[in-house]
UniProtKB/TrEMBL annotation:
Name recorded for this polypeptide: GGDEF domain-containing protein
Entry keyword set: Membrane, Transmembrane, Transmembrane helix
Superkingdom of origin organism: Bacteria
Organism per entry: Paractinoplanes toevensis
Family annotation (InterPro entries): DGC-Regulatory_Protein (IPR052163), GGDEF_dom (IPR000160), Nucleotide_cyclase (IPR029787), Rev_trsase/Diguanyl_cyclase (IPR043128)
Length: 213
């Protein structure tokens, strides 16, 4: 039984009907008992795999999902990774407070999640750093198209209390090579591209095109 299923036990008990000491019959009473251990297991699984602030998958789960995607690709190289680092987040924290910073992280997570397809995976790696695993992507252009949708959504300011904040971020894009199965190496190349994007903010993103050693 996988996580997410609730096991239910049905307890049946007969209660006799009596009158003047005589048993006239019985009424069957049923009660549904939900095993609390199963519910606790599901909750523990969610805590272990989910970022509690944004509701996205956490770092550990994102790496695991990327490994699974690479394995399912069977060497076809139809997986892309996007590493994202928010720009100006420290200023929001310093000027508006950490609570406002948290609200911005949550809002940015929603933007990312609403801009990808249902099979794609969006995760928060920590701080103001996020990552996306894109499935069924066989060209850099398709990955860039997803990033372009995100950047278009970022043009709409986010209301943080009485202040309108426009999210800003740098994106590093990398396409898995045929036969590639190293999630760490793939994300490292995406990280390199992301820092290139930070240094040159003309487009807001950079693509890592060099094959891994």
């Amino acid at each position: 039984m996988g996580v997410g299923y609730a096991l239910m036990l049905v307890a049946v008990r007969d209660f006799p009907l009596r009158t003047a000491g005589l048993v006239l019959g019985a009424v069957a009473m049923t009660g549904v008992v939900v095993l609390r251990q199963i519910i606790a297991l599901r909750e523990n699984h969610e805590l272990a795999t989910t970022d509690t602030l944004t509701g996205l998958v956490n770092r550990r789960q994102l790496y695991e999902r990327l490994r699974m995607a690479l394995a399912r690709g069977r060497g076809r190289g139809n997986v892309a990774a996007v590493l994202i680092d928010m720009n100006g987040f420290k200023q929001v924290n310093d000027n508006l407070g950490h609570e406002s910073g948290d609200q911005l992280l949550v809002a940015f997570g929603r933007i990312l999640r609403s801009s990808v397809f249902g099979t794609d995976v969006v995760g928060r790696l920590g701080g103001d750093e996020f990552a996306i695993v894109l499935h069924d992507v066989d060209s850099v252009d398709k990955a860039v198209a997803v990033v372009s949708r995100i950047m278009a959504a970022m043009r709409e300011p986010v209301e943080i209390g009485d202040v309108a904040v426009q999210p800003q971020a740098s994106f590093g894009i990398v396409l898995a090579l045929p036969g590639e199965d190293d999630a760490d190496a793939l994300l490292h190349r995406a990280d390199t591209a992301m820092y290139q994007a930070k240094q040159n903010r003309t487009t807001g993103y950079a693509v890592h095109v060099t094959a891994p050693a």
